[in-house]
Amino acid sequence: MTQPSRMIRRRHVLQLMAGTTGAVVLHACQPQESPDSSESAGSEEGTEGTAAGSLAMSMGSAPWVGQVPLYIAQEKGFFEEEGLDFELSLFGASGDYISAFLGENIDSVAPVSSEAVLMKSQGKDFKIVLVQDNSVGGDGILARNGIESIEDFRGQQIAVDTTGVSYFFLLQVLKEAGLTKDDIEVVNADPAAAAAAFESGNVDIAVSYSPYLQQTDRAIEDGRIIYDSSQMPTAIIDLYLVDTAFIEENPAAVQAFVNAIFKGTQFMTDSPEEALEIGAAELEVTTEELASDLGGVKIPSVEDNLDMLARPDSDTYLVEPLSELAAFLLAEGQIETDPGDIASLIDPQFVEAYQA
Q1: Which residues of 128-159 are buried (b: 16+ CB within 10 A; e: fewer)?
Q2: CATH class (in words) of the domain with range 6-135+236-355
């Protein structure tokens, strides 16, 4: 197996202990030391005549392929063009940036959907202002050829990271097949180790994600990807969340952020080779590796975001899958407090304003 790149840390840990209150985590961890970890993308004069620094916004995250539009916006000066002094701090694990957000040390975060539900259950007041990406094949389950269906998972050992989004994905897949966690034997292993255990023959089923999922699938003869996230495209969604009080006090800053991200997304279409170079440099992978990883996620367009955030009749409207996820996490004991009305978390105004 290859060594994990920086982007792989994006979903490695989902460790907000059930029942922990925000008061316990007010002392946020410091972001990891990195040459790019706390650079501000808005420290110079904007190219469209708006003085950068008049608006400011901070965000915490860990490196991830779905943030390529953000990295492009930094590199190409799109935040400056929008007059935004944007500061991105990269943390070593999601638990660290979650602590910083709960402790009001940063204005926004870029978590996976299950982390958003966890924070809501902790009482954090935030809004989902933009969808970062959907997993459409980047996450999946490997199984031996003799295992013909998900129903055949009953009684099997399954290697999966029980502290990460892979576990929630597995449980949802099991639920579709009429199974529960009590029907399987879990072997706790991070995504790289789970794939390695499958490749070496130590387990017959493993849950992993890109690039380990595809690498292992190519390396083995007795096995294949039996199920991937393209079959459940709303199961794993990465989001951009902003503190509600910050939105109320700084709506122009949030609008500038959304505008810059959409500029970065458009740049990926207009200049794909340069976009790959920018993203690969930030994530410390090759352009070929990044291109492969991008194949497992969908970077949503403006229309896609409107469907997910502003159109209740859409098949991809987020309220239903997030509400189902919240109920699921509560039933599984991953959270102790019902997060309440999920619809109240969604704020499409900035995407709608960009379209207008």
Answers
A1: bbbbbbbbbbbbbbbbbeebeebebbeeeebb
A2: alpha beta
